[in-house]
Amino acid sequence: MQDLKLTLRQSTLVSPPKQAENKSFFLSNVDQILNFDVPTVHFFKANPDFPLETVAKRLKMALERVLVPYDFMAGRLKLNQQSGRLEIDCNSAGVGFVVASSECSLDELGDFVYPNLGFRQLAVQTLDNLGPDVEQPLCVIQVTSFKCGGFSMGSSLNHVLLDGASAEIFSENLATQAFDDKPLVIIPCNDRHLLAARLPPHVEFPHPEFFKPNLPTIFGPSVFDCKREELDYTTFNLTSTAINYLKNKAKESISSTTTKITSFNVVAALMWRCKALSNDAEYNKDRVSTLLNFVDLRSRLNPPLPNSYCGNAVLLAYSSATCEDVEKWPFSKLVEMVAEGPNRVTDEYAKSVIDWLEINKGLPCGEYVVSSWLRMRFDRVAYPWGKPFHSGPVVSHRKDICWIFPGVDGVNTLVSLPAKEMERFVACFREFFPQSIVNFSPKL
């Protein structure tokens, strides 16, 4: 269902109750490369004590309250002309707040796990009523009611604001502020200078996971994005049976006794293989395929970052091989490489990356990024009206990112690719398993 028959009820900006002191908010080199929107949506069952008007009122109140410790989220991106760096102007311009209603019921939406282009309507990225001369907010929160009484809460956040871990804490804090008398779960640590480059920068390792764009810095950091084109969307449902099959296959000829054969590692290795072998219309055995996956730095640095660190405390681990090797190597070899990538990200390596980015203003360099939601627990966040029964990413124009998130039984992966490439990806996926062991959604 691509048209959810929405009616817009409210579209406004929400600011902190007291305007904060106008200041420039420092963004780390990791933040600089993640200037793109991430839309997500959370679905809630009907609660007779919380009709749309009550939910909207509570959520708007919660936003106003939570923007006191998160005042930077109500600001706007700006370019520091002297340094060529992005900063946030903490000007209390506000976050977007949208209230809408749908003529559909939740039952009509089908299986929430599978891609639904209509969900884009539940997490809008811009406020059309602001006009062409008004800067768009970095965050938009949207609540949408359905005729069955259930509703959704969508969000579109610029990635410079939060990574996955800090987004989960923000959600918990937002939920507490929707109650009358609950304190914040965790007070965010907003000091992003904790991930500032060293003076002078000192690059100790090669960093093939990044490249230096050939652009003048007067235009600011390059944007980590991809070409917008028509895509097909497929969710691959890997049940616990399929995951166990992959783990057993990885164990067949594993050479390292220390390799962790986790659900993420085996699924990421499979996604890498399918992507590498489906990329070209004509197979090029010598082409190098690189898989990237995000690694949380909080516990890897010395001293460790506080768990409350609010910002992007992530770096990209990489695995590279020619397409011929990806195809011919045993599956265990690919799993070993995926597992080895994060082990490379030590304190010294992370600081070297941050310093490299300070010098080169680079961008991620890889064919495919695998982003894991397996440790995200948005479905455990308790609002006054209950916990969401489903939370997940919304399909976007990005064909270079595969999302891995929990399933009812196993793991789901959301893949977005052009039609011909998707056909080859699906064929490669099917060939890897015995018949009837896995399922996936029809393409959209």
From TrEMBL:
Xref: Pfam families: Transferase
GO molecular-function term, one example from the UniProt record: acyltransferase activity, transferring groups other than amino-acyl groups
InterPro entries for this protein: CAT-like_dom_sf (IPR023213), Plant_Fungal_Acyltransferase (IPR050317)
Family, similarity comment: Belongs to the plant acyltransferase family.
Protein name per the record: Anthranilate N-benzoyltransferase protein 1
